[in-house]
Amino acid sequence: MKTINKLLVLLLPLLILNICGCTDDFDTMNTNPNSPVEVPGSNVFGAAIMNSSSQLFGERIGIYYTGTWSGHHSAIGLGDYEYRVDINNNQWQGLYIVAANFVTAMEIAEKEENNNLYAAALTMKVYVMHKISDMWGPIPYSQAFKLAKEGIMYPEYDKESVVYDNIFADLSEAVSKFNANGKPIGPGDILFNGNIDKWIRFANSLRLRAAIRISNVDQAKATSIISAVANSPLMTELSQNAYHYWPGDDQRNEPWFVRLGRTGTQVKTDQYRMNSVMIDLLKELNDPRLPVYADKNERGIYNGYRHGPNQRTDTMNFAINVSHIANRWMNAKNGFSPYMMAAETHFNLAEAYARNMIPGNAKQAYENGIRLAMQDNGIAQSAIDAYLAQPLVAWDGGGIPNLTKIYQQKWISLFKQGVEAWAENRRTDVPRQTGVEPNYSGTHNRPPFRMSWSDTELSLNPNAPPAGVTITDIFYGTQMWWDKRTGVK
Predict the structure, then answer these.
(1) Which pLDDT score is estimated for 149?
(2) Structural domain includes residue 305
């Protein structure tokens, strides 16, 4: 974290110099020829959103690492769980810099007496920190970003339970500060365009998401939080989806397009393809989203890369046989980065109802989630109705536990949300992934449990690794606090 603190000090001036070009309409500046330029908080906020999209939904984290570990995507020819010190360090540092930018936006918002901007920046800071914790586990949270004000050079690591306590407290504070009659967030709100109602729904839905995550390890606390937010404004309609749409002006193109995109008659050749876990489940369920998620391979069939000890010699894993990711997700300059969609709210409520954590109609919530997820992918109403009637999908049908169906449908709907899909797969073990790449270790029966610890942290921060953590497997690590699966290694 010493390295991160230094980076923040060095990079902030660069951020101030370059932030004006980060979004359209960021041209409202308070200038004085005799003093440095003062950047409005909304500008800092907008740049931070764009940077968080690049980090969390970019190639390395969004497609390769968590995309593979979640069972959504794979890299043919590699297909492994690659550990590279420099890349791992960059992901850690990059995400903390993004979170620090949101903190900076909060500080400026306080000076500007703009509670809505402060609350939105706090919500996004929590969003990023939640992702960091779900990737690494114990992290600096309570003492992070306090070098300038409190002189904390080496922040201590909070246990995961403490991180989640901070997440719930910060999101509650954010909700309490939003005010539809208050100052506008400004042009930096490239997520909801100043709609305070949508911000409130997003923050509440994030509280629900986090509560469901810890429900297997602290059901009492999870139930208390779910009860508090269940009757609050939540993301329940497609128009409330938290999607960041990129400008697509060749300076700010959607990250998957930058890596995978093709124009005109160009043929897709990239190594990033579909994972067999996703393809096989969609085929088993006769899911109409299959052609929306994947292209047919060169032989005219849908086939995903299959992980396991023979993956390098399996002919069905050869390039001509593995389906590419379909156009909706990777072939538009002005495509989107999905922070959260309304369908997930319904699936989270369905789980809470099905587990009797709070009273409610689990079947209706489950079906609502499917309908929204299907509609978001352009599926016709008649096809949705037919899908819901299939035994393997229908509530109480097909001999599959209803809770498993909720987990399956939620996992499918999280396409392009690699970090979230990986977290849910570790929490639920649905769908079960047992085909593990033999690289690095042949003793594991599941994908990695967490990202490996940052080498710079281990070298420079005397508080790393956190107390009680023994590094026995630098790559796979140990199970998360909220991961209560048994028989996994």
Answers:
(1) 87
(2) no
242 pairs with which residues across the strands?
340
Cα 264 to Cα 110, 261, 325, 333, distances in angstroms: 48, 10, 17, 13
Other Cβ atoms less than 10 A from the Cβ of 358: the count is 16
- The helix/strand count (H/E) of the chain reads as 19, 4
SS3 305: strand
Bridge-partner residues for 305, per DSSP?
Answer: 275
Q: How far apart are CA 477 and CA 471, in angstroms?
A: 7
Q: Quick count: other Cβ atoms within 10 Å of Cβ 36?
A: 10
Pairing, β 73-75 against β 242-245: unpaired
Distance CA 78, CA 82 (A): 8
Q: Is the pLDDT of residue 148 over 50?
A: yes
Domain that holds residue 164: 2-250+335-460
**Mean pLDDT across the chain, nearest whole number?**
91
Q: Going by C-beta distance under 8 Å and a sequence separation of 6 or more, which residues neighbour residue 92?
A: 4, 132, 136, 451, 454, 456, 457
Q: How many domains does the chain have?
A: 1
Looking up tokens 């949101």 gives: 102
Answer yes or no: is 99 within a domain.
Answer: yes
CATH number at residue 118: 1.25.40.390
Residue 241: inside a domain, yes or no?
A: yes
User: Are residues 345 and 235 in contact, defined by beta-carbon separation less than 8 angstroms?
Assistant: yes
Structure token pair of residue 380? 């016709």
Residue range 273-293: average pLDDT?
98
